[in-house]
Structures are given as structure tokens and as C-alpha cells.
Design brief:
There is one protein chain. The chain is mainly α. It has one domain. It is built from nine helices and three strands. It is elongated, with a radius of gyration of 26 Å.
């Protein structure tokens, strides 16, 4: 936290209140909005990647499965060949190479979405402070924000490549196991189709978790910079909220002391969490009025 930033903010708020009173101001910061647009875009990109992989598997692997099953010699009418496993691996390696352009585009997208999440989270904090104090804060400590953002971009860029590699490896293992056990062609294809579904469902969870965590981390640094030492835990307020998160609803949480009830994680940080951190600007107002 920058004490200078906090002093400047409270000084400006004092002048504003002396001139205009508290007309038009709120006692508490508005409910923060979740970064749903960024989450949808992130999920769409992951789904596009999964779709590209599915299309390549269908185009390159599916047509060869019948002859691979015959080569494997696991059916009564088959003639056994020892190199079927390598042939299967070559097919999946070719599939992986075919989606490399899609992987590159997806990685590039992560650079832009990180910047937009940061900008939006910053604007949310400006709006929260302005609603209660009547003035907008000026942020100076960009180094910490840049460090968090760059680390997130690097991590997510690497994750995209790893996700594609893992998906190809898992599909290859699934196909190999099915062929080795003598499964019919229709069942081998069905096992691979199930892998497509798992990849898409996983994309939804990953998108919410990654974007929400970055949003929380930027929110934390912006609030702390202007002297807001904690937040009020705010849930999505529906039937899908987890019990331990529902128990935290409305509770003040210091940024330096994440709650044990949620595994020492702040709002928005647990996997698939939809909670947000409402800035405790009212505590700055109390400090201003007491002074």
C-alpha cells in the first residue's frame, strides 16, 4: 500500500465533501460485477481448440482405426502386425501438429484477455471508490500489477500447449487400450468421443477459474494501493453457491488473512468460484469522518 496514494485520495475526498456534502454518494461500494465476458471468451477459445482437435482426430485417426484393429490381431479374423502401436502414435502426432496454428492463435488471445481483465478490474475499483468518496483514485504502483499480469500470461500460454499435449496423449492412450483389448471399431470411436466431451467440460471450469483468479489478484493490489485493507465477501446469491462460500457472504475479509473456511483462498480464487470482493471503501470513509 502506498501511504502517499491513500493520503492524496482522502485529501481529495475531504475537499469534495466539504464543497458538496455527501449528496449522491453511497455508504457502501456497489456490488462488483464478475468478468463474465472475459470468461466466455476464454472458454470459447478453449472450446475452439478442443473442436479443432476433435476435427483432426476424426479426419486423421478415425479412418485408420479399422485397419489398425486388424493389424493388432486382437480379433479372431485379424492378422497380427507388431507395428500397429507406432502407427497409432504417428497418427496422433500428426494430429497434434495439425492444430499447432490454432494453439498459436489461442496463446496470443491470452495476452489480450489478460490486459482486458486487468483494465476492467481496475475500473471496478475506481467505480467503487468514487461511489463512496466522490473522487477517483490515481494508481501509481504499476510494477506489481505488471508482474502479476505477466506471470498470468506466461502461465496460461504454457497451459494452452500443455492442454493440447495432454488431450492428444489421453486420446492415444484411450485408443491404444481399446485396440489392445479387442474392442469393436464402434466402441473405440465412442471412447474417443467421450474424451471430446471431457475436454469441453474441462474448458468451462478452467476459463472461470483462471479469469476469476486474475481478477481477484488485480482487485487485491488496486484496493491495497489506496489503503483498502480488506473486502466484503460477495456471493452469486443463487442455489449454486457452495455452503462454505454462503457462510462467508457479507463477511469482512482482510487481504492479509484469507479465510480458513475456504482453504485460505480469497473470493474468486477457488476452482470455479463465482464470488467477488466488494471493496470496503466504507472503512476509508469512517477514517475520513473520524479525522
Amino acid at each position: 500500500m502506498s501511504e502517499q496514494t491513500k493520503r492524496e485520495l482522502l485529501a481529495a475526498a475531504r475537499v469534495r465533501i466539504e464543497r458538496q456534502g455527501r449528496r449522491g454518494l453511497r455508504k457502501q461500494a456497489p456490488r462488483p460485477r464478475r468478468p463474465e465476458q472475459a470468461i466466455r471468451e476464454y472458454r470459447t477459445r478453449l472450446r475452439d481448440l478442443a473442436k479443432a482437435l476433435e476435427e483432426e482426430v476424426r479426419a486423421q485417426v478415425f479412418p485408420e482405426l479399422e485397419s489398425i484393429i486388424e493389424q493388432a490381431g486382437t480379433r479372431d479374423d485379424a492378422v497380427r502386425h507388431d507395428d500397429w502401436g507406432q502407427r497409432l502414435r504417428d497418427l496422433f502426432n500428426a494430429t497434434r501438429m495439425s492444430i499447432e496454428p490454432v494453439i498459436g492463435r489461442t496463446r496470443s488471445f491470452m495476452l489480450s484477455i489478460g490486459d482486458r481483465v486487468e483494465g476492467r478490474a481496475t475500473q471496478e475499483q475506481i467505480k467503487a471508490v468514487r461511489a463512496v468518496l466522490g473522487v477517483s483514485p490515481t494508481f501509481y504502483d504499476e510494477g506489481r500489477i505488471r508482474g502479476i499480469l505477466n506471470a498470468w500470461k506466461d502461465q496460461n500460454g504454457a497451459f494452452i500447449t500443455r492442454m493440447a499435449d495432454d488431450a492428444v496423449e489421453q486420446m492415444m492412450d484411450t485408443a491404444s487400450r481399446a485396440v489392445r483389448t479387442g474392442r469393436p471399431l464402434t466402441e473405440v470411436r465412442e471412447e474417443l468421443r467421450k474424451r471430446f466431451d471431457i475436454t469441453e467440460r474441462r474448458a468451462k471450469t478452467i476459463a472461470r477459474t483462471e479469469v476469476s483468479q486474475l481478477n481477484t489478484q488485480i482487485t487485491r493490489e488496486r484496493q491495497r494501493e489506496v489503503g483498502i485493507t480488506g473486502y466484503y465477501w460477495t456471493t452469486a446469491n443463487d442455489e449454486r453457491v457452495r455452503d462454505d462460500h454462503e457462510d462467508m457472504a457479507g463477511e469482512f475479509v482482510p487481504w492479509d488473512d484469507p479465510p480458513s473456511e475456504t482453504g485460505r483462498q480469497h473470493a474468486g480464487e477457488p476452482i470455479n468460484c463465482r464470488c467477488t470482493a466488494r471493496a470496503a471503501v466504507d472503512r476509508l470513509l469512517d477514517e475520513l469522518e473520524a479525522d
